[in-house]
């Protein structure tokens, strides 16, 4: 919906009749491009606790008994890294709350890199020593 | 007072007036979008180094390899420090969005300090490796290890300089609540550096060969 209001042309002052519009905007914390409010500081701290727990589990997996297969350890480490990756990008970098265009650009880069370098690894890993 | 008629969309334009942001047709900040495009391209940049490490880690093994010299407890502590710097970064952003400049300076300085501790740890690690006979020229595995983690360290160093610049601007009163987007963009860069380390720590240091 579009309507017309009057606003100061050059001085930067606010016309008294329009104060209510600008005051209403200043009450909102969100900037253009943000779809939902960002997490609160308490939520940020809770997210950090989760990240620490996952990191501790990763380091613990590294020291698992040698009887545990390398495949299982690798799976735990990859899962931990992927989980931390999505937690940081989703909450700390606000991809979950910001406009979807940011998410699309980032996913484009991440998936592009993943597929490109998977192909490179599969193609070149069989080559002899250089 | 001269006045001019402006069309107003209540959902976005009122914010633009309040925060003095130019809202392009996409409805998002151009600067923030540019940072996301840069970070997207940086995924390919770091992906190339990590892939090269995976390709060459078991080849041409003359002399010590990085894997034989890793000090996992030490690197775990520096990784934890970098992870916590992401927390202090978001707390700095939340503080400046509230207009709490004192706390913003505390958190942003804490973030930069954590970053410096991480870089200090990396310098210590590189020095230890060199003392034990692993240099850029020892073998391919060592070369790509130093280059990949060194490039990441360079990114962290750039981030530290950026954060200290923001701290200085805030201390001089040049960084107000209306400039919180500048802090958010530096935060995006900082978190990305953290995300890259999450991958490097798991793939380069922890995953068994």
Topology:
The complex is a heterodimer of chains A (130) and B (209).
Chain A: E1 3-8, H1 19-27, H2 41-62, H3 70-92, H4 100-124
Helix pairs in contact in A: 2-3
Chain B: E1 3-8, H1 13-19, H2 30-56, H3 66-69, H4 72-98, H5 101-131, H6 140-171, H7 180-206
Mean pLDDT of chain B comes to 88
Q: What is the name of the CATH superfamily of chain B?
A: Cytochrome c oxidase, subunit III, four-helix bundle
In CATH terms, what is the architecture of chain B? Up-down Bundle
Summed over residues and divided by their number, the pLDDT of chain A gives a mean of: 77
Distance between the termini of chain A: 65 Å
If helices are DSSP runs of H or I spanning 4 or more residues, what is the number of helices of chain A? 4
H-E order of chain A: EHHHH
Number of strands of chain B: 1
Segments of chain B where pLDDT lies below 50 for 5+ residues? 1-18
Keywords:
heterodimer, A: 130 residues, mainly alpha, disordered N terminus, B: 209 residues, Four Helix Bundle (Hemerythrin (Met), subunit A), 7 helices, 74% helix
């Amino acid at each position: 919906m579009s309507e017309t209001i009057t606003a100061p042309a050059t001085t930067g002052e606010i016309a008294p009749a329009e104060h209510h519009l600008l005051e209403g905007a200043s009450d909102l914390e969100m900037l253009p491009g943000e779809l939902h409010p960002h997490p609160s500081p308490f939520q940020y701290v809770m997210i950090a606790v989760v990240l620490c727990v996952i990191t501790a589990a990763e380091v613990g997996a590294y020291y698992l008994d040698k009887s545990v297969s390398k495949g299982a350890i690798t799976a735990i480490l990859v899962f931990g890294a992927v989980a931390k990756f999505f937690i940081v990008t989703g909450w700390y970098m606000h991809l979950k709350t910001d406009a979807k265009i940011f998410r699309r650009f980032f996913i484009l880069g991440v998936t592009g890199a993943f597929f490109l370098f998977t192909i490179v690894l599969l193609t070149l890993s069989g080559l002899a020593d250089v | 007072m001269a006045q001019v008629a402006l069309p107003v969309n209540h959902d976005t334009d009122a914010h633009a007036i309040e925060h003095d942001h130019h809202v392009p047709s996409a409805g998002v900040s151009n600067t923030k979008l540019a940072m996301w495009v840069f970070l997207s391209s940086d995924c390919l940049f770091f992906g190339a180094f990590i892939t090269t490490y995976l390709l060459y880690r078991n080849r041409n093994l003359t002399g010590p390899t990085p894997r034989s010299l890793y000090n996992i407890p030490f690197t775990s502590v520096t990784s934890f420090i970098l992870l916590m710097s992401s927390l202090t970064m978001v707390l700095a952003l939340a503080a400046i969005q509230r207009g709490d400049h004192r706390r913003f300076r505390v958190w942003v300085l804490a973030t930069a300090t954590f970053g410096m501790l991480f870089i200090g740890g990396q310098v210590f690690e590189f020095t230890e490796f060199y003392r034990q006979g692993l240099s850029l020229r020892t073998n391919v595995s060592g070369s790509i290890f130093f280059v990949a983690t060194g490039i990441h360290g360079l990114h962290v160093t750039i981030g530290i300089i950026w954060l200290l610049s923001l701290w200085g601007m805030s201390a001089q009163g040049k960084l107000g609540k209306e400039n919180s987007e500048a802090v958010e963009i530096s935060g995006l860069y900082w978190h990305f550096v953290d995300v890259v380390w999450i991958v490097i720590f798991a793939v380069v240091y922890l995953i068994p060969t």
